[in-house]
Amino acid sequence: MIKEILLPVLLILLLGFQSCSVLEQTKEYERFIECKFSVSAVEVKEIAGISMENLDNLDDLGIAQMMTITQRLFTGELPAKIEIGLRATNNNPKQASISGMEWITMLKEEELLSGYIQDEVVVPPGSSTTFTVVANLDLMRLLKSESFQDIAGFVFSNDKKAEMRKIGASLRIKPYYKVGSNIHKYPGYLTIHD
Predict the structure, then answer these.
(1) For the ranges 4-18, 27-41, 98-112, 176-190, which has the lowest average pLDDT?
(2) Looking at residue 190, what DSSP letter applies?
(3) pLDDT classification of 154: cutoffs 50, 70, 90
(4) Which of 72, 90, 104, 130 is most buried by its number of CB atoms within 10 A?
């Protein structure tokens, strides 16, 4: 008799707790969408395998580094690695979070690069969290574009955020959220504004 009563009660409690968890995950995702976003940093980490840290312009490159870049240009490829720091500010009294996201970087209306993060991003209530997205791209494609001068200015600029605005670059994200054990994607992209 006790087993017959206890089993349905336990099932009801389990389902109740699980549905509360699903509702909370959905609310955290909705609060994430309501966060204020800004680009906190943009760093060109390397070009053709050469570290760009502590370089302010092309004159700071050594002869061997210039030869490496020139050699890569002749192969038709010029790989680069860029890190973009994003800051999410949650003005809600409760936690905001996502379970990952896709992102794209646009130059005016042309897609330059894209990627994804499969890590959870949590923004505590009434505070901010900074997270980083990494992009690998082929600068040769950009060298052939009409915007090359703007892009070169960006690469060697000390104020990457201002240069990003100047050349019309934007970052768009598509957050993922979890419902139970299933991951879902936001239906469109959100544009990050400074």
Answers:
(1) 4-18
(2) E
(3) low
(4) 90
| Chain position carrying tokens 């800051």 | 87
What stretches of 35-155 show up as alpha helix (H) in DSSP? 63-75, 139-143, 148-155
Which residues, at least 6 apart from 12, have a Cβ–Cβ distance to it below 8 Å? none
pLDDT band at 89 (very low <50, low <70, confident <90, very high): very high
Contacts (Cβ under 8 Å, ≥6 apart) of 73: 140
pTM of the model as a whole: 0.66
Strand order in the sheet with 36-47: 50-51, 36-47, 79-90, 127-138
- Can you name the residues that pair with 102 across neighbouring β-strands? 116, 174
Give the pairing type, strands 121-123 and 50-51: unpaired
